[in-house]
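User: My collaborator sent over this chain with a note saying "see what the structure looks like." That's all I know about it. Can you take a look?
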Amino acid sequence: QVQLVESGGGLVQAGGSLRLSCAASGSIFSINAMGWYRQAPGKQRELVAAITSGGSTNYADSVKGRFTISRDNAKNTVYLQMNSLKPEDTAVYYCNADVVHTTRIQYKYWGQGTQVTVSS
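Assistant: Without extra context I'll predict from the sequence alone. Here is the result:
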């Protein structure tokens, strides 16, 4: 079993910054892609940013230039640095990870979510 534990959410004023962290633990052989999604009230969950094990990144157009995803493979941790936050960034943010177990079988795991609220 694998657990993803997120931290770093909170309340911030527009224009401010937050840094989210997500640490994976458990029966892990390796981790391929890791990513952050968000879900605002009444909306579908959407991809915010993703990063491969090699460091290639992908961002939603709405966050390009403001958010930066990174990872520490030694710590099985992914980060999301969020700058110039806007009220429309308010959502519950979820991390996910494509974990390869020692059986060499890959599963996608999700964190429990962390609330980010940006006030105007």
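A starting point for your reply to your collaborator: The chain is about 0% helix and 60% strand.
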